[in-house]
Design a protein that fits this description.
By secondary structure, this protein is mostly helical. The protein has 9 helices and no strands. Helix 2 crosses helix 3, helix 6 packs across helix 8 and helix 6 runs parallel beside helix 9.
């Protein structure tokens, strides 16, 4: 009888200790990997494989940008942005560079209107977007980089397609991770 009570007491104490140890840990590991998806892997790679440093960075992003007052769009604004994106896609056939310039500016304008950081600090804006739209923020980075880099027409087309994922999420107010099908661009130069 005494042995059974001691075993039960040890199990209860171990369970309570485990509960408090796990509860006191900062959000990281699986929860950050689940929240950030490919952005988690990007941060780990940027920190040379140091997951603790990457998790610290991502945790800091959540603290800085997790409670943004993300504003909804009016129907008029939604229609205006949709028309601008359609125009950028149409321009792609004649001038991929001009299409990327418009897409980059459009994404910057849309993010500001939705309540994300504005200004000239692209990294701060993409950090904030990564907290709320981690699945698609890299598309914005690709649009921005392709606009400022020496890339092929195919790479520009792919960047525009990936940027469309973030555009769709921001336009619809969708949460991160929403899957999108066709991005309305067909292989090669042109729109569908």
């Amino acid at each position: 009888m005494t042995t059974a009570i001691i075993i039960i007491a040890v199990v209860v104490v171990a369970a309570i200790a485990a509960f408090f140890l796990l509860r006191g840990r900062p959000a990281g590991g699986r929860s950050l990997r689940g929240r950030f998806g490919p952005e988690y892997d990007r941060a780990v790679a940027r920190h040379g494989g140091d997951t603790a440093a990457a998790e610290q960075e991502l945790g800091d992003r959540v603290k800085r940008h997790g409670h943004l007052d993300v504003r909804p769009l009016t129907e008029e604004a939604r229609a205006r942005y949709a028309a601008r994106w359609a125009s950028a896609q149409e321009v792609f056939v004649e001038s991929p560079e001009r299409a990327l310039t418009e897409a980059d500016a459009l994404l910057a304008d849309l993010t500001r209107e939705r309540g994300f950081p504005g200004g000239e600090d692209f990294e701060d804006r993409t950090d904030a977007l990564s907290v709320h739209h981690a699945a698609h923020v890299d598309g914005y980075r690709r649009v921005h980089a392709a606009r400022h880099g020496n890339v092929s027409t195919e790479e520009m087309r792919e960047a525009l397609i990936e940027g469309r994922g973030l555009f769709d999420d921001l336009l619809a107010g969708a949460p991160s991770g929403r899957e999108h099908g066709n991005r309305h661009l067909v292989k090669g130069r042109g729109t569908s």
